[in-house]
Amino acid sequence: MKRLLKAPVAMVLAVLARAILKKYAPQIIMVTGSVGKTSTKDALAAAFAETHFLRASEKSYNSEFGLPLTVIGARNPWENPAAWFGVFQEALALIMLPSHYPKLLILEVGADRPGDLARILRIAHPDAVVVTRLPDVPVHVEAYEGPQAVRDEEFAPAYALLPQAPLIICAEDVYARTMAARLPVSITTFGFSDDADVSIANEEFYVDGEKSGMRADVGGKKVCVEGALGRPQLYAPAAALAVAKALNISEKAVRAGLKTYVAPPGRARVLLGVRNSYIIDDSYNASPAAAEEGLNALSLIPKKGRRIAVLGDMLELGRYSQEEHARIGTLVEEKADMLIAVGLRSRATYEAARKAGLSEDTAFAVDTATDAAEILQELVQEGDVVLVKGSQSMRMERVSEALLRNPEDSQRLVRQEREWKRR
Prior knowledge:
It is a single chain. By secondary structure, the chain is α/β, with parallel strands linked by helices. The protein has helices spanning 2-24, 37-48, 66-72, 81-96, 116-121, 147-154, 156-159, 174-180, 235-247, 251-258, 288-298, 321-335, 347-356, 369-379, 397-403, 418-421, and strands at 27-32, 54-56, 104-108, 128-131, 166-170, 186-191, 198-208, 211-218, 221-226, 269-273, 277-282, 307-312, 338-342, 363-366, 385-389.
């Protein structure tokens, strides 16, 4: 029944969202790419809050359901029929009655299957597009002919731009640069490359009293991202400054807004763990590129104890799954002291790590996040740093929750809604 209702509900939402956008004609910035979309969207929202009446996608609402809900300004009704009726009422009120509607929408868009972004682009047309990063082996690749087909889909919003419209891309992303070069758009770049329009340099992990995070010179001035770890955390504020540059928005106001930016839950957030350990909670999702960055982040915290990688399955990689899980396993031996591999696919990670040099006392393979949590509750020692990462369906936030020093910090984890907890 749910599957039967999904298509008509999506169609109704699309019709309502199109009507709302036609009536109010807000400026639309779309954020697309394989990794870092939600962080970038949140950074944009923080950066422009001082200068614009805006609305941004809630959490990671980036689908043919999530985008219309953002346009309407409604929360996800999940499986509540009465709540869905309320969403439709709210949308009709916006269409039929006058309303003080946002002048700027920051919309995160994503694709799980071919054609997803084509459907989204029939609802909303971008005035500017930010492409985060397009890695060699992107997530969801099993549903496509190959990696380039995924990249083409994720780049689709850029193809929808009008001539000379702003396109903001990562400077070191060779795929985005190659595709962007074919378009008659205005390109602004951000990243660690020296030739980036908004460059990132002198990055470091900092500790200031009870606060910690990443800081760097971004566009020539210091920017801090509190509570998160890893070089990728700095892409989001850099992208926001690049958008400001492209749209001639006050840099001073944008930098003031970025001081309020906090990395979203499940994206390399640093939390206090049991027995004076630290948790790098990167449990929102996983792909090969993101797992590699997570392992790199382990070395940024000064070593007092062991570095433990808890890695769940990376799903939807298709024929690349075995190879990529094994490649990550080899990296684990270089970057971490211990491994807990979670799930069937991650057995390849475990086997590669063992082959590379981890012993049976430092590498473990388990079936579920609950199994991993049970092992770690006995295993974690003072000063250990625990990286927790895996695809959404692996529910790796359960590992982070089990290791929290302060149980109230569970509200800082991803997927804490009642609907998710019941699954």
